[in-house]
Write a structure and sequence with these properties.
Layout lengths: L3 H23 L12 H4 L27 E5 L18 H5 L5 E7 L6 E11 L8 H5 L5 E3 L15 E2 L1 H4 E3 H7 L1 H11 L5 H9 L14 H15 L7 H6 L2 H8 L8 H22 L2
Parallel strand pairs: 1-6
Antiparallel strand pairs: 1-4, 2-3, 3-5
Helix pairs in contact: 6-7
The structure holds iron/sulfur cluster (2 copies).
């Protein structure tokens, strides 16, 4: 019959309308009482009719796999051995795989030796550019970056406010366990424990000897020693006689005085350059260029 679909639709709407008020009666008008937290009751599986989430006072729980802006996992602040320690080793894989290239990482250096330290000194994500794809979290080999559930990020300033830095991005491991409990457990099982991979490796190696443990802050004496060594290395050296250089094996000259490749003599540099050019020419010849 023409129009029967329309009548069915209207009847369905009417049923929902009536059920909404019947549901109120079922809960004895306590359903919307501001005095009690009725959210679970109103949004429960037994609730019927039309209902509204009173956002922003009330929010629906996000599914575990919901993903928004990434965050960096750090050890719990009450961790006995590594409180607040970054899980990120600043390997840079997330920045490389990020499709819109919105991650910037600055790797830390040991102030005493100048050598790289596996933790980020700075970490930035431009949240206006991030497209929430989750690649960074998928590819991170240390489970150090995760997708957050926090979607309330609107602000009046789109410049500095939307470039999230390390303090803003860092969240404790316990937060990840709260928002994604089953995934956190699955990851811990795959990793072999709740601890970071590096912490597990250290535990397997056993306690370090005192002399192996790197000082967290270099002493003034250490800094002076490093400066003195650097000044010594940078000081101009008399050019050795060509025959002596030609005879002396490179490894011997490097190991004997602890010389570094960047402190080699001009002759040695020229020799290395000539060898590199010869190799390049050989490769080009092989390719038929
Ligand atoms: S891939 Fe993981 S460990 Fe590597 S820089 Fe990114 S967050 Fe850090
Ligand atoms: S979620 Fe995707 S777009 Fe956003 S930072 Fe990670 S890789 Fe980049």
């Amino acid at each position: 019959m023409t129009g029967s679909g329309f009548i069915k639709g209207m009847l369905l709407t009417l049923r929902h309308f009536i059920q909404t008020y019947l549901d109120d009666l079922r809960y004895g008008f306590k359903k919307y009482s501001p005095a009690v937290d009725n959210f679970n009751e109103r949004q429960g599986t037994r609730a019927e009719g039309a209902f509204t989430v009173q956002y922003p006072e009330e929010k629906l729980a996000m599914p575990e796999r919901f993903r928004f802006i990434p965050f960096l996992v750090v050890e719990d602040y009450d961790h006995p051995d590594r409180p607040g320690k970054d899980w990120c080793t600043s390997c840079g894989i997330c920045a490389k795989v990020c499709p819109p290239q919105c991650i910037w990482i600055v790797r830390s250096n040991d102030p005493a030796t100048g050598r790289p330290v596996p933790e980020p000194e700075a970490f930035f994500i431009d949240i206006d550019i991030c497209m929430n794809c989750g690649f960074c979290a998928e590819y991170c080999p240390f489970d150090a970056i995760k997708m957050d559930h926090d979607y309330e990020l609107a602000s009046y300033d789109r410049t500095t406010n939307h470039i999230f830095d390390k303090p803003k991005l860092s969240k404790e491991l316990k937060y990840w366990k709260t928002i994604a409990p089953t995934r956190a457990v699955a990851e811990a099982q795959a990793r072999g424990g709740w601890d970071h991979k590096d912490a597990q490796k250290e535990a397997r190696r056993g306690p370090k000897k005192a002399e192996e443990v790197a000082p967290t802050a270099p002493s003034a004496a250490t800094r002076e020693e490093v400066r003195a060594r650097k000044a010594e290395a940078d000081a101009p050296k008399p050019a050795p006689a060509p025959t002596a250089v030609a005879e002396a094996p490179k490894s011997a000259s490097n190991t004997a005085e602890g010389a570094k490749p960047w402190t080699e003599s001009e002759d040695e540099k020229e020799k290395r350059k000539a060898a590199a050019l010869a190799r390049k020419a050989a490769r080009a010849a092989k390719r038929g260029e």
